[in-house]
Specification:
It is a multi-pass membrane protein. The chain is an alpha+beta fold. The protein is about 35% helix and about 20% strand. It folds into two domains: about 55-170, Orthogonal Bundle (Helix Hairpins); about 175-355, Immunoglobulin-like, CATH 2.60.40.1400. It has helices spanning about 15-20, 55-60, 60-65, 70-100, 115-130, 145-170, 175, 240-245, 270-275, 345-350, 355-395, and strands spanning about 180-185, 185-190, 195-205, 210-225, 230-240, 255-260, 280-290, 295-305, 310, 310-315, 320, 325, 335. Strands 1, 2, 3, 6 and 9 form a five-stranded mixed beta sheet that branches.
Length: about 425
C-alpha cells in the first residue's frame, strides 16, 4: 500500500524548517596548551637528543657565559689550581734535573729555596700571580727555567683574560637590564578610533633610557596547511601602530602598544567567545640599547587567551603634579570595562551599525545609572530632612507652655478673672 502524500509541502514541514534555522556555532572546550614563552620571558623549550655535543666546545667562551654561576665558579677555581699544579711539577722537574733537590750540593741552584714539591708549588703561585715574596727566585744558570718562566707568564695571562672576561659578561648580561622592563599582566581588546584594537602596556622602571626601543608582536598557534602539513609553532608577525609611525619608541613613560585588528591581522575573524576557546599565544618582544652600557637588551613576555580581556581599557597612570609628571605604577595593569562589541572585527567591518548600537546602549545605561544615583541621593536627602524635622517636633512637644494670668478689675468690686 502506497503512503498517502501529505497536503503540506515538504519544505514547509517541521524537518525542513528546522534544517533551515540558523545554527549557533559550537565551541569546543579549550585544551590546556603549554605556552611557548613564559611570563618572565624564558623560553619553554627543551632540546633533546643532540648528537653533536662537540659543537658547544667549539665556542667555549659562550658556553662558559651560559653556564650557571656555581659551575662557572667551579671551573674558575679548577683552572687556576690545575695551572699552578702543572707548573709546580715543571719547576720540580727543573730542580730535580739540575740536582737542586740534593741537600749536599753547594753549587748555584736554578731556583733558590726550591727543595721539595711544596716549595715548587708555592713558587709556581708566586710566579703566576706575580706576588714575589723575595725568598724564592730564579737564577741565570738554567735556560730551561727561564723558558718555563716565560711560558707560565703567558699561560697565566691567557687564563686571567678568559676567566675575568667570562665573569664580566655574566654580570653584565643584557637579560639583567630586562628585569626592570615590565609588561602589563593582561592584554585588552577595545574600540579605539572606531576600530577594534589589541593593546598592551609596557614600562621602564629605571631613569636611564632604552635607546632605539622597538616592539614586535607575534601570534603563535598550531595550524594545518591545505596539504595536511601540521605546523605546531606557526609564528605570524603582527603590525603595531608604533612600527608604522616611526622606527623606534621613546620609552620615557609607560606606553600603550596598540595593534589595529584589520583584515591583515590574525585576530580578524575572532569574536569574544571564539577567543576564549582558541589556543593562540601573543608574544611581545621589546628590544633596545642600554644607555649606560651600550649593550643590546631584550625583554619578552606572552599572553594566552585567558590573559586577554575583551571589552577593557587601561586606566591613565600619568598625572601632572606641581609641574612634574608623575607615574603611579600601582595602577600599571589596572583596567576598566568599556562598551565593546562582542563580534569579530570582520563582522564589525561588514555591519558598522553594530558599533553604533553598542555605543548607544552604553550611553543609555550610563544615563540610567546617573538617574538612579541622582534619585538615590535625592531620597537620602529627603529622608535626612524628614528625620531632622521629626526630631524638631519631638523636641518642641517636650516643652511645657507656661500659663499666664491676667487680672482685670471689675466695676462692682475687687473680683478677679483669671485668663490664660
Amino acid at each position: 500500500m502506497l503512503a498517502r502524500k501529505s497536503i503540506i509541502p515538504e519544505e514547509f514541514g517541521l524537518p525542513g524548517l528546522v534544517s533551515r534555522l540558523p545554527r549557533k556555532p559550537v565551541f569546543r572546550d579549550r585544551v590546556n596548551k603549554a605556552r611557548f614563552i613564559a611570563k618572565n620571558g624564558s623560553c619553554n623549550l627543551a632540546h633533546k637528543n643532540i648528537r653533536e655535543q662537540g659543537r658547544f666546545l667549539q665556542d667555549v667562551f659562550t658556553t662558559l657565559v651560559d653556564l650557571k654561576w656555581r659551575f662557572t665558579l667551579v671551573i674558575f677555581t679548577t683552572t687556576f689550581v690545575s695551572s699552578w699544579l702543572l707548573f709546580a711539577m715543571s719547576w720540580w722537574l727543573v730542580a730535580f734535573a739540575h740536582g737542586d733537590l740534593d741537600q749536599q750540593q753547594n753549587g748555584t741552584h736554578c731556583v733558590n729555596e726550591v727543595k721539595s714539591f711544596t716549595s715548587a708549588f708555592l713558587f709556581s703561585i708566586e710566579v703566576q700571580v706575580t706576588i714575589g715574596f723575595g725568598g724564592r727566585m730564579i737564577t741565570e744558570q738554567c735556560p730551561t727555567a727561564i723558558t718555563v718562566l716565560i711560558l707560565q707568564n703567558i699561560v697565566g695571562l691567557i687564563i686571567n683574560a678568559v676567566m675575568l672576561g667570562c665573569i664580566f659578561m655574566k654580570t653584565a648580561q643584557s637579560n639583567r637590564r630586562a628585569e626592570t622592563l615590565i609588561f602589563s599582566r593582561h592584554a585588552v581588546i577595545a574600540v579605539r578610533n572606531n576600530r577594534l584594537c589589541f593593546m598592551i602596556r609596557i614600562g621602564d622602571l629605571r631613569k636611564s633610557m632604552i635607546i632605539g626601543a622597538t616592539v614586535r608582536l607575534q601570534v603563535v598557534r598550531k595550524t594545518t596547511t591545505p596539504e595536511g602539513e601540521v605546523i605546531p609553532i606557526h609564528q605570524i608577525d603582527v603590525q603595531t601602530e608604533s612600527a608604522v609611525a616611526s622606527n623606534s619608541l621613546f620609552l620615557l613613560a609607560p606606553l600603550i602598544i596598540c595593534h589595529v585588528i584589520d583584515k591583515n591581522s590574525p585576530l580578524y575573524d575572532l569574536s569574544a567567545m571564539e577567543l576564549q576557546c582558541s589556543d593562540l599565544e601573543v608574544i611581545v618582544i621589546l628590544e633596545g640599547v642600554v644607555e649606560t652600557t651600550g649593550i643590546t637588551t631584550q625583554a619578552r613576555t606572552s599572553y594566552v587567551s585567558e590573559e586577554i580581556q575583551w571589552g577593557h581599557r587601561f586606566i591613565p597612570i600619568v598625572t601632572e603634579e606641581e609641574g612634574v609628571y608623575s607615574v603611579d605604577y600601582s595602577k600599571f595593569g589596572n583596567t576598566v570595562k568599556v562598551a565593546t562589541p562582542l563580534c569579530s572585527a570582520r563582522e564589525l567591518d561588514e555591519k558598522p551599525s553594530i558599533l553604533i548600537q553598542t555605543l548607544q546602549k552604553s550611553e543609555l545605561s550610563h544615563q540610567n545609572s546617573l538617574r538612579k544615583r541622582n534619585s538615590m541621593r535625592r531620597n537620602n536627602s529627603m529622608r535626612k530632612g524628614a528625620g531632622s524635622s521629626g526630631s524638631l517636633r519631638r523636641n518642641n512637644s517636650g516643652l511645657v507652655t507656661p500659663k499666664v494670668q491676667f487680672f482685670t478689675p471689675t466695676d462692682g468690686g475687687q473680683n478677679l478673672n483669671a485668663v490664660t
